[in-house]
Amino acid sequence: AGNPANQPPNVPEWTKSLGEGVAVRPYGKPSKFEKDVIRRDVEWLTASRESSVSFTPLHELEGIITPNGLCFERHHGGIAEIDPADHRLMIHGLVERPLILTLEELKRYPRVNRIHFMECAANSGMEWRGAQLNGCQFTHGMIHCVQYTGVSLRTLLEEAGVKTNGKWLLVEGADAAAMDRSLPIEKALDDCIVAYKMNGEALYPEQGYPMRLVVPGWQGNLWVKWLRRIKVGDQPWHTREETSKYTDLLPSGKARRFTWSMDAKSVITSPSPQAPIKHGKGFTIISGLAWSGNGKVKRVDVSLDGGRNWWPARLDGPVLDKALTRFYYEFDWNGESLLLQSRVQDETGYVQPSKAELRKIRGVNSIYHNNGIQTWHVQANGEVENVEVA
Ligand code: MTE
């Protein structure tokens, strides 16, 4: 492959002349040879692009940090392009001192830096009814993990002085959807952040520029983007996003509501349908991601035979609270077909269930909160497909 004229023993073209100078690219971009590493959407999944989703290319990434330009997007009313000079964050309701803050004022409060994953509750939602989408970008790509910089929500609530009957917050965005959710005060005072930076630079418009709420470990829908209002009240608001959406219909006909936390889950990112094994049999690297909304990842096991035998995976890189964790399993592939699975256990002792176990409790009416074990079928030719084992 490639151009033999550029390969040894020849001198390649890029060695024969000077390259471009500094600042020719004032904002850096990946090599043009990486043009396929992009967010992708699934056309038939939603009726309009303004209320839709694009997926993180998990199969192309390593480590635990998602580059800003590759973070999946989920908007209900398109991307609001906000001039920070005109944006305000209002904190009102059951407080002693209502606040209206500019971005500059927000930046004068003490800062925190935290690395957290954010997963949409609908991640893997299509897979409730069996193997559907061929690629971990599509089955698991409604997740990203970045370092946020911002102000602890607790700091802002203390500044406003929450009254003793203040038990819930209404958090609302400034986009066309004006998306709003109810957040219990315990979580708000625990580890939530009003963030204005991601991975060191300003939030991207897709991710809520100039400010968004970070709700570690809880479903993405609560992470309100383009955050403009926090109202303190004494009970939840029962907004559209917590009644008609983001509830789980059980076999009994009753629905679970306020299912905030994202249970432990893992996936092998490579090999996977978009990342087949091209090198044939021999030393093979399995790379994957594990996470838990309830704490740190304790261990990950990998199966090559659809869950009959399990082998401990190697965690590499930081293992952080409510953050993605990278795991590896290296082995000698004999060239026969494989049924690859990964299974995470978090620090609470919770073990990721099989899809069958999950369906026994939750039925098949759900869209959200599918954290079942994923299976990839690796064929002898190295091609990989999404399957389910009984
Ligand atoms: N906030 C506002 N204002 N509007 C939205 O449409 N979508 C929510 C949440 N916050 C949304 C929002 C949903 S459903 C998810 S999963 C996450 O933002 C997606 O965040 P991301 O686009 O940074 O991945």
Low-confidence stretches: none
From the alpha carbons, calculate the radius of gyration and give it in angstroms: 23 Å
Ligands in the model, by name, code or SMILES, are: ligand MTE
Sheet/helix structural class? mainly beta
- Cα(first) to Cα(last) distance is 41 Å
Counted by DSSP, the helix tally is: 6
Q: Supply the CATH class of the largest domain.
A: Alpha Beta
Number of strands: 23
Structural summary, described in words:
By secondary structure, the chain is mainly beta. It folds into two domains: 75-256, Oxidoreductase, molybdopterin-binding domain (Sulfite Oxidase, Chain A, domain 2, Alpha-Beta Complex), CATH 3.90.420; 265-387, Immunoglobulin-like. Helix content is 9%, strand content 30%. The protein has six helices and 23 strands. It has helices at 13-16, 103-106, 136-140, 153-160, 185-190, 355-362; strands at 52-54, 73-75, 89-93, 99-101, 112-119, 143-152, 168-173, 180-184, 193-198, 201-202, 212-214, 227-233, 248-249, 255-256, 265-270, 282-291, 297-303, 311-312, 314-315, 325-333, 338-346, 375-378, 384-387. The strands form six sheets. Strands 4-3-12-7-8 form a five-stranded mixed β-sheet. Strands 5, 6, 9, 10 and 11 form a five-stranded antiparallel β-sheet that branches. The protein has a five-stranded antiparallel β-sheet with strand order 18-17-21-22-23, with no helix packed on it. The longest helix has 8 residues, at 153-160. It is globular. The model has no long low-confidence stretch (mean pLDDT 97). Bound molecules: ligand MTE. Ligand MTE binds at residues 71-76, 120, 144, 173, 175, 177, 179, 206-207, 220-221, 223-226.
